[in-house]
């Protein structure tokens, strides 16, 4: 009787094991090739673009050695089209980050999407760049209204692990996506220096190959988050590459893309990588400061709407015809509100120096016999103000302020927003020379005064 039970039990166990075996054999086996690297590439590659330029202009500057190293002999040609680097889309409206040295010499810029994103080609407009960090921002000109693009996700500023696996992506020469894998060798490593070193003492170092044409493309972690912007390889070391860390990229982006790009003073910096968006700096005496915004405030809403990201928030502040904005922010555990009134830059110049100024554009520049963006035209002088005391008169053109050219309000913005009461201001001006009613030329002069 016991043997009979044992036999039946053995048959049941055998049947269950057989069923389990055949069920497992019939089920789809996991694809071992689809590891974290493959998934990260799948997420990021549609955001990577090839950057092509037309009519590269010769010049000798701090980027020459990088340019020669990456693009020789292509950089020696002076006409037709060139595929000079890569870029990465950071916003669904088509904003692209790349290296300034990739696009600085171009008269015309085009990009080509990755094959994973359709491979279409687009014209782009350069927004602005910064030589201090070698970061440039481009904007795709869409072919249809409301067109959207795949965008990479930013890593947190300091979320870097020495030894972690990193991926250098690019779209070199428009031939398709390129990926190389390595580790993050160092978070703080000086880039190779030559006669004119860039101000980049803390580039990331990696042994992931940064191939020719990958300059400007993304360096990402295995989460597919952007941790750096590929920029250079070391001529002295084998297999040593460098990337601008995401913290410097974010700081450069905060400088490049601000409400002040439309000559309106806001006076606060916002971190592009933070969520929710966080204020990282507030200039003393600025509209943001006067409204009560503080460093560390997390922006929840603007005029009752929650911004999707850094660029959308700046677009609201820059492009809206209104100049008053109600911010809802989180400070510590409390929510607070702040009413910000943006200040037009020409009003700021009037406050500081007692000058009414205009940008020299189009017909106005032509009527004064000057090239567009020659400087800021003095259209009025406040009686008794600093400019009046320095004997500046209407019709004078201000070309430099404290050693920096001011072809427009944008270039003058940071200079004026940093001026404090009593600060010395040195203006280079063009004074019109006339014979009777005829303008015969300009005499250059220097005027010194103090801001109020």
Describe it.
With 452 residues, this protein is of the alpha+beta class. It has four domains: 39-152, Trypsin-like serine proteases (Thrombin, subunit H); 154-249, Trypsin-like serine proteases (Thrombin, subunit H), CATH 2.40.10.10; 258-341, PDZ domain (Pdz3 Domain); 345-450, Pdz3 Domain (Roll), CATH 2.30.42. It has helices spanning 2-26, 36-44, 64-71, 100-103, 246-256, 287-291, 310-319, 345-353, 362-367, 386-389, 409-417, and strands at residues 48-54, 81-91, 95-99, 108-113, 121-130, 135-140, 153-154, 165-170, 178-189, 203-206, 218-220, 225-233, 241-245, 264-265, 268-271, 278-282, 298-302, 324-331, 334-341, 343-344, 355-359, 376-381, 397-401, 404-405, 424-435, 438-450. A hairpin with a 6-residue loop joins β15 and β16. The longest helix has 25 residues, at 2-26. The protein starts with a helix and ends with a strand.
Distance between the termini: 109 Å
Largest sheet: 6 strands, antiparallel, barrel
State the CATH architecture of the largest domain. Answer: Beta Barrel
CATH topology of the largest domain: Thrombin, subunit H
């Amino acid at each position: 009787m016991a043997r009979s039970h044992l036999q039946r039990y053995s048959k049941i166990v055998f049947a269950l094991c057989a069923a389990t075996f055949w069920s497992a054999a019939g089920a789809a086996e996991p694809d071992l090739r689809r590891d974290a690297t493959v998934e990260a590439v799948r997420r990021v590659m549609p955001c990577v673009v090839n950057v092509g330029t037309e009519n590269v202009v010769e010049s000798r500057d701090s980027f020459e050695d990088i340019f020669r190293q990456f693009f020789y002999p292509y950089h020696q040609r002076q006409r037709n089209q060139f595929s000079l680097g890569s870029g990465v889309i950071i916003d669904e409206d088509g904003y692209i980050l790349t290296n300034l040295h990739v696009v600085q010499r171009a008269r015309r810029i085009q990009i080509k999407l990755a094959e994973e994103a359709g491979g279409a080609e687009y014209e782009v407009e350069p927004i602005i760049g910064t030589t201090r960090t070698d970061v440039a921002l481009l904007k795709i000109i869409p072919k249809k209204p409301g067109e959207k693009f795949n965008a990479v996700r930013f890593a947190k500023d300091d979320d870097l692990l020495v030894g972690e696996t990193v991926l250098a992506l690019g779209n070199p020469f428009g031939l398709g996506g390129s990926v190389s894998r390595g580790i993050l060798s160092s978070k703080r490593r000086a880039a190779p220096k030559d006669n004119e070193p860039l101000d980049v003492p803390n580039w990331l170092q990696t042994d992931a190959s940064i191939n020719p044409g990958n300059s400007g493309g993304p360096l990402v972690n295995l989460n597919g988050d952007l941790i750096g912007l590929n920029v250079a390889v070391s001529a002295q070391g084998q297999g040593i590459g460098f990337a601008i860390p995401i913290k410097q990229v974010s700081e450069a982006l905060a400088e490049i893309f601000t409400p002040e790009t439309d000559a309106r003073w806001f006076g606060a910096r916002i971190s592009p990588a933070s969520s929710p968006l966080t204020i990282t700096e507030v200039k003393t005496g600025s509209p943001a400061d006067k409204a009560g915004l503080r460093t560390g405030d997390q922006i929840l809403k603007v005029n009752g709407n929650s911004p999707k990201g850094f660029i959308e928030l700046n677009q609201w502040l820059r492009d809206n015809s209104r100049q008053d904005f109600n911010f809802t922010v989180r400070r510590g555990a409390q929510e607070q509100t702040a009413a910000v009134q943006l200040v037009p830059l020409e009003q700021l110049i009037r406050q500081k120096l007692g000058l009414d100024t205009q940008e020299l554009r189009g017909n106005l520049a032509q009527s004064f016999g000057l090239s567009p963006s020659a400087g800021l035209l003095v259209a009025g002088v406040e009686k008794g103000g600093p400019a009046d005391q320095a004997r500046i008169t209407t019709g004078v053109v201000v070309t430099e302020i404290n050693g920096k050219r001011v072809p427009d309000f944008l270039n003058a913005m940071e200079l004026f927003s940093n001026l404090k009461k009593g600060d010395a201001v040195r203006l280079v001006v063009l004074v019109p020379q006339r014979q009777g009613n005829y303008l015969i030329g300009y005499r250059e002069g220097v005027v010194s005064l103090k801001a109020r």
